[in-house]
Amino acid sequence: MTKSKIPMHQHIQQDLLKKIQSGEYPEFSLIPKETELTEIYQVSRPTVRQAIQGLVNEGYLERKKRRGTIVRQKKIDQDFTHIIESYDSEMNRKGLLPKTQVLMLKEDTATEDVAQSLNLKEGDKVYKLVRLRYAQNNPIVLVTTYLPFALLPDFMSHDFSQEKLYTVLEKLNFAITSIRRKLEVLKADETTSDLLDIEEGDPIFYFHSTGYTRERIPVEYSISKYRGDMNSFIFELNNNAAQALLI
């Protein structure tokens, strides 16, 4: 116990937090090992472990297998739940550097789920676009998008590592004006964990989104897998249940 009667693990927790907030321990850096901290603070290892766990619970630290304990990045507040805006535009607005890696762009056939979302018949031709999207060189979200083949000639000629999907759709006279979203929370499988640089079984936010034109033509069906440790979502509701933004 300190003279102020604050338990020692809380004193250590507060001191570590000050060092994180001051930048002494910057984002993504490793803090000293538990054995080093026991020497620094002259306490037992369980006391250090309790202090670290408190900061893990509050989201400031994260334990990584085979690496140690790292300072976590502050979560990115995602506004897309109530604003129709491209990912790049949103990240730029938040002062974060966006990057998109196209993992796949090909012709495919619509599954039952895709056909239902795009008002097609099962087996109809669609485009399948898979993108891994980054902020500050960290993978944030894995997005798989399906679009009706018949409506979008020359769609595959576009470079979606540089071009924004919604801008391309607008140029093709299919501007997205409304979106229907469904949110689930799932555990990351092996492929998703590898791509998003998280542990298998970690929580992910799983969005199903269907984008419509002003004429209510569905032209985009996307499945987005967001890292649970680096994203939070803002929902804006009014008093009219029919206007709820998460449907």
Automatic annotation (TrEMBL):
SMART domains: HTH_GNTR (SM00345), UTRA (SM00866). Gene3D superfamilies: Chorismate lyase-like, Winged helix-like DNA-binding domain superfamily/Winged helix DNA-binding domain. Keywords: DNA-binding, Transcription, Transcription regulation. CDD domains: WHTH_GntR (cd07377). One of its GO terms (molecular function) is DNA binding. One of its GO terms (biological process) is negative regulation of DNA-templated transcription. InterPro entries: Bact_HTH_transcr_reg, Chorismate_lyase_/UTRA_dom_sf, Tscrpt_reg_HTH_GntR, UTRA, WH-like_DNA-bd_sf, WH_DNA-bd_sf. Pfam families: GntR (PF00392), UTRA (PF07702). Residues 6-74 form the HTH gntR-type domain. This is GntR family transcriptional regulator. The lineage of its organism: Bacteria, Pseudomonadati, Pseudomonadota, Gammaproteobacteria, Orbales.
